[in-house]
Write a structure and sequence with these properties.
By secondary structure, the protein is α+β, with helices and mostly antiparallel strands. It is built from 22 helices and 21 strands. The N terminus and C terminus are likely disordered.
C-alpha cells in the first residue's frame, strides 16, 4: 500500500467536508437529477415542468397544457391548473412558489390531500429545472391576480410581485426557462423527441389537450395532441403499421385497493409483442410488479380458456407459455398508485408488491368475462397463441444449437469468430463486421488481447417479419447468438454475455446502413436487455482520408473533409496538392488505418445505442422493417434532409 508523505494530502478534518447549500448540489452533480447533461437531460427539463401540469390534470384541475420552443431553444410551458401557491409558508417564511423553485424536496407531492397520485415524488423536479437554467421566469394566475418571479441559475433575482388582476376564475402557471450553457453540452431541442412524449401523455390522460409549437426559423411547426379515447387510441396508434387480427381494441378500466388500473390491447398478425407499461404517467420501460401481474393474468386466462375450447381436443398436450400468449400483442397498461416505490429517481421499474396482485385479479376477471362473451375474438387469440406454441416447439432444436453452458465455455464457438484472449467480459468487445474483406482487415488491425471479430456474410434475416423458428434457422443469426453466449428471448441471461461491448461495424453506404438496421432490429426484438445494459454500439468509420506528404487526417463527412483540406492549405478550392481518398467500404482501409480510425479506444468514436424511448424505437422499426411500403417511403422522404450529400 502506498504511503502518503505529503501532510497536505493526508490531513483530513471537518474543514475538508464540503457543504452544498440550496441548489448548489444540483449544479455540481446534474447527472444525479436529470440523467445526463446532453440530449437526454436537456429534454428531461421539459418533462419535469410538463409533469407538474399533468399532475394538476390527474387531480382534476387542468385540461390544457402548452409547450413552446422559442428561436433560441428556450422553452415556455403553460397550463390552466390551480397555479402554484403564492401565500407565505408558515415555517419557511417564503412564498410557496419560491419554495418550490429554490428548495429541493419541497413540493405538494408529499401531501396526499393535494395530489392523490403523482409522477413527481421526490419534490426535486421544477427546482432542478431552475438550478440548471440560465434564466427562469414564472407567472402564476391565482386568487384573481397574476404573480411574477424570476431567477438566474437557481438564485432569486426578482422577489414575488403582483403584475395585476385577472379574471376571477382564471388560474394557471406559466414557466419560461433557458437551459444553462455552463451545464449542458447540447442545447438544441429535438421536436420529434418532445412530440413523442407529449403525444404519449395525451393518450394516458384522455381529455387533456397538449399543444407543442416550434418557433425556430425554418422549423416552424405546431401540433395539438388530444385523445378522447385514451388508451384505446394509443393502441390503435401503435398498431397503425400492423394488420390487426380483430377490429376492436379490448379495453379495461377498473380499480382495486385504491389502485386504478387501465388496460387496452389488440393482437396483430406480427410475431413481436409490444407491451408498454406506465405508473402515474411514467413510462416504466423496465417493467415491475404491475407488468408482472398483467402478463401472469393474460397467460393464465388464455390457458384456462384453451382448456375449455374446441382447440383443446386437437392439441391435448399443449400448454401455452407467456411468449405464446403475447405473440403479436400490442398492449398498454397504465396504473395509478398513491405511494409508488420506484427504483431510484429514474423511475423505470415499479417495486410495490401489492400492485401485482391487484392487477392480476382485475385483469383475470375482466379478460375471462370478455373471452366468454366474445367467442370469435377468443378463437382468433387462441389460434394465434397455438400457432406460436407450435413454432416454439419447432425452434427448440435450433435454440439448443445456440445455448451455451457458461460464459467461459468456448468449445462451441463459431469457426469464423476470431476471439480475444481475455476472458473477463467487462474487458472484452466484439466487432460484428460486414463482409469477409473488412473482417480480414479488422482481424489484422485489432488488439487480440480484448477485441474479437465476427465477420458476417451478406444481410441477416429481417426479424421484424419472422417467427422464432425461422429466426433460429438463419445461420448468421445463430452465429451471433452463439458468439455472444447469453441465449435468446426468455432464456437470455445477461450474466452469460461474453463481451460487454458489442460493436456493429458496417460500410458507410446504403447496404451498410441496411445491414446495421437489420442487426439493430434483431437486438431490439430478441435481446433488448443488451440495449438496456448499454452494451450495443455503432462504429463510426471515416468516409475520407486527406493527405499531404506524410501528413494525413480523416474526415467523417463532406463538410469536415473540406475544412481539413482548407486547413492543410490545399489551394483556393481546398483540394489542390492534396491526396483525397473516399472510402467506399471498410475493406478499402488497410489494417493500420482501420485500427487508428475506428478500433483504437484512444482515438475512435463509437455511438452507444440506448433504450431511452422504446416507444419511438418500436414505431421506427415497424416503419423501416415492416410490410407496409408507403410508411417507409414517407419516413425516408421526411428524413432525407438529415443525410449528407457525398460525392462518391
Amino acid at each position: 500500500m502506498a504511503k502518503i508523505n505529503d501532510a497536505s494530502e493526508s490531513h483530513y478534518d471537518a474543514s475538508g467536508i464540503q457543504v452544498l447549500k440550496g441548489l448548489e448540489a444540483v449544479r455540481k452533480r446534474p447527472g444525479m437529477y436529470i440523467g445526463s447533461t446532453s440530449h437526454r437531460g436537456l429534454h428531461h427539463l421539459v418533462y419535469e415542468v410538463v409533469d407538474n401540469s399533468i399532475d394538476e390534470a390527474l387531480a382534476g384541475y387542468c385540461d390544457t397544457v402548452s409547450v413552446i420552443i422559442h428561436p433560441d431553444n428556450s422553452v415556455t410551458v403553460e397550463d390552466n391548473g390551480r397555479g402554484i401557491p403564492v401565500d407565505i409558508h408558515p415555517i419557511e417564511k417564503l412564498p410557496g412558489v419560491e419554495l418550490a423553485l429554490t428548495v429541493l424536496h419541497a413540493g405538494g407531492k408529499f401531501d396526499k390531500n393535494t395530489y392523490k397520485v403523482s409522477g413527481g415524488l421526490h419534490g426535486v423536479g421544477v427546482s432542478v429545472v431552475n438550478a440548471l437554467s440560465e434564466v427562469l421566469r414564472i407567472w402564476v394566475k391565482r386568487e384573481g391576480k397574476e404573480h411574477y418571479m424570476d431567477f438566474v441559475r437557481g438564485d432569486t433575482t426578482t422577489k414575488l410581485k403582483v403584475l395585476g388582476p385577472v379574471k376571477a376564475k382564471e388560474t394557471g402557471t406559466k414557466v419560461y426557462f433557458k437551459p444553462d450553457p455552463q451545464i449542458f453540452t447540447e442545447l438544441e431541442y429535438d421536436y420529434s423527441t418532445l412530440a413523442t412524449r407529449l403525444r404519449e401523455l395525451s393518450f394516458l390522460n384522455k381529455g387533456v389537450t397538449i399543444t407543442l409549437s416550434d418557433e425556430r426559423e425554418g422549423r416552424e411547426k405546431a401540433e395539438a395532441f388530444h385523445a378522447k379515447g385514451g388508451l384505446r387510441e394509443f393502441v390503435a396508434f401503435l398498431n397503425a403499421k400492423q394488420r390487426p387480427l380483430h377490429p376492436e381494441v379490448l379495453y379495461l378500466e377498473g380499480a382495486k385497493d385504491d389502485i386504478e388500473i387501465e388496460v387496452a390491447l389488440q393482437y396483430n398478425d406480427g410475431y413481436n409483442e409490444n407491451v408498454f407499461s406506465f405508473v402515474n404517467n411514467i413510462n416504466t420501460h423496465e417493467g415491475g410488479t404491475h407488468l408482472t401481474g398483467f402478463k401472469s393474468a393474460l397467460t393464465s386466462v388464455i390457458n384456462k380458456h384453451l382448456d375449455k375450447s374446441s382447440f383443446a381436443k386437437k392439441d391435448k398436450e399443449v400448454k401455452l407459455s407467456g411468449d405464446d400468449a403475447r405473440e403479436g400483442l400490442t398492449a398498454v397498461l397504465s396504473v395509478k398508485v398513491r405511494e409508488p416505490q420506484f427504483e431510484g429517481q429514474t423511475k423505470t421499474k415499479l417495486g410495490n408488491s401489492e400492485v401485482e396482485g391487484a392487477v392480476k385479479t382485475v385483469v383475470n376477471e375482466w379478460l375471462s368475462t370478455f373471452l366468454e362473451e366474445h367467442p370469435r375474438v377468443a378463437n382468433i387469440i387462441l389460434d394465434k397463441a397455438l400457432s406460436a406454441a407450435r413454432a416454439r416447439e419447432a425452434a427448440r432444436k435450433a435454440r439448443d444449437l445456440t445455448r451455451k453452458k457458461s460464459a467461459l465455455d468456448v468449445g462451441n464457438l463459431p469457426g469464423k469468430l476470431a476471439d480475444c484472449s481475455l476472458s473477463d467480459p467487462a474487458m472484452c468487445e466484439i466487432y460484428l463486421v460486414e463482409g469477409d474483406s473488412a473482417g480480414g482487415s479488422a482481424k489484422q488491425g485489432r488488439d487480440r488481447m480484448f477485441q474479437a471479430i465476427l465477420p458476417l456474410r451478406g444481410k441477416i434475416l429481417n426479424v421484424e417479419k419472422a417467427r422464432i423458428d425461422k429466426i433460429l434457422s438463419n445461420e448468421e443469426i445463430r452465429t451471433i447468438i452463439t458468439a455472444i453466449g447469453a441465449g435468446i428471448k426468455e432464456e437470455f441471461s445477461l450474466e452469460n454475455v461474453r463481451y460487454h461491448k458489442i460493436i456493429i461495424m458496417t460500410d458507410a453506404d446504403v447496404d451498410g446502413a441496411h445491414i446495421r438496421t437489420l442487426l439493430l432490429t434483431f437486438f431490439f426484438r430478441q435481446m433488448p436487455e443488451l440495449i438496456d445494459a448499454g452494451m450495443i454500439y455503432i462504429a463510426q468509420p471515416p468516409l475520407f482520408r486527406v493527405a499531404k506528404g506524410k501528413e494525413e487526417y480523416y474526415a467523417y463527412d463532406l463538410a469536415e473533409r473540406d475544412v481539413i483540406a482548407a486547413r492543410m492549405g490545399g489551394g483556393p478550392d481546398g483540394k489542390v496538392n492534396l491526396m483525397m481518398q473516399r472510402y467506399k467500404g471498410l475493406g478499402e482501409m488497410n489494417p493500420d488505418q482501420l485500427w487508428k480510425t475506428t478500433m483504437d479506444p484512444e482515438t475512435r468514436t463509437i455511438l452507444k445505442v440506448t433504450m431511452d424511448d422504446a416507444f419511438l424505437a418500436n414505431e421506427t422499426f415497424q416503419t423501416l422493417m415492416g410490410d407496409e411500403v408507403e410508411p417507409r417511403r414517407l419516413f425516408i422522404e421526411t428524413n432525407a434532409k438529415f443525410v449528407s450529400n457525398l460525392d462518391i
